[in-house]
Amino acid sequence: MTTLSTYDAHAHERDTDEEEAVADDHRCPDCGGSLTSDASRGETVCGDCGLVVEEDEIDHGPEWRAFDSAERDRKSRVGAPTTKMMHDEGLSTNIGWQDKDANGNALSASQREKMQRLRTWNERFRTRDHSERNLKQALGEIDRMGSALGVPESARETASVVYRRALDDGLLPGRSIEGIATASLYAAIRQANLPQTIDDMVLVSRVDEQKFTRAYRYINRELALEIGPPDPTDYLTKFASAVDASDELMRRARELLETGKAANVHSGKSPVGLAAAAIYAAGLLVNEELTQETVSEATDVSTVTIRDRYRELLEAESARDTSATSGSNASA
């Protein structure tokens, strides 16, 4: 009679043999190197010696080809992926607005009336309570503002998750939907280190700056988002593009900001103002004619702020050069 320990030993040996067989399947039979699959060629190749172990593999993708997004959507036979940017995550059924049948023929008057009633009831069932209606309105606001600002879809998805967390934690009573939606989008922008500023948010939001910033501080604290202060270098590309600056000016402005941060010039200062001042100061250093008024109009930063900040950046740069010269003389 086989004992329990003997049975366990046999089972362990069998599992070990199976693991070794799987490992052997992923090793080159010639040199023992690891195998990689090349989907474009339909081959399994050794990454070390280049031996083609398998060829003419089965392609598990679609049998059709598409050369643009419109053709891909037209040929695809599956639904859209789930997304947090829709209140039902894209799982509910939508009834098309075209009054045509499957063959493209126009519907009769009675059928059109019936389809309109179905659309109405379908919309009512998709948002059956106030929380779903609230969420639908807020996510629509996030998508609208994100599109107006050119925010990528990944950041808008993050903003939708932030808003859902605020809704689940009961942070909305007493606050406007638009204010929390704007704050959620700005939190996602800050997490992704995008160059949109508070002034940019105010331009597309339906609430004023005070309500929006108060809502942002509130959800940042209650949800423990732990978003650090923005980096002035995040705004350089946007501002340099606005004034049509050269690559050399961009490089010099980045160096000025890095030197300023090392000298703690950025402490307590607006990152937007520092970035604008760095653009102006770099223009002086590389002999590109950029006036303070030009930079001010392009960056929406006052000339007084640019004048004060650029002097601080140049002083930090001068102090660094002096320190480096003193160090080299002492070593000599």
Draw up the topology in text:
Layout: H1 4-25, E1 35-38, E2 43-46, E3 52-54, H2 69-75, H3 109-126, H4 130-149, H5 153-168, H6 177-191, H7 198-204, H8 209-222, H9 236-242, H10 247-262, H11 271-285, H12 292-299, H13 303-331
Antiparallel strand pairs: 1-2, 2-3
Helix pairs in contact: 4-5, 4-6, 5-6, 6-8, 10-11, 10-13, 11-12, 11-13
Structural description of this entry:
It is a single chain. This protein has 332 residues and is mostly helical. Among the domains are: 21-55, no CATH class; 130-222, Cyclin A, domain 1 (Orthogonal Bundle); 232-324, Cyclin-like (Cyclin A, domain 1), CATH 1.10.472.10. It has helices spanning 4-25, 69-75, 109-126, 130-149, 153-168, 177-191, 198-204, 209-222, 236-242, 247-262, 271-285, 292-299, 303-331, and strands at 35-38, 43-46, 52-54. The protein has a three-stranded antiparallel β-sheet, with no helix packed on it. A hairpin with a 4-residue loop joins strand 1 and strand 2 (43-46). The N and C termini lie far apart (88 Å). The model has no long low-confidence stretch (mean pLDDT 81).
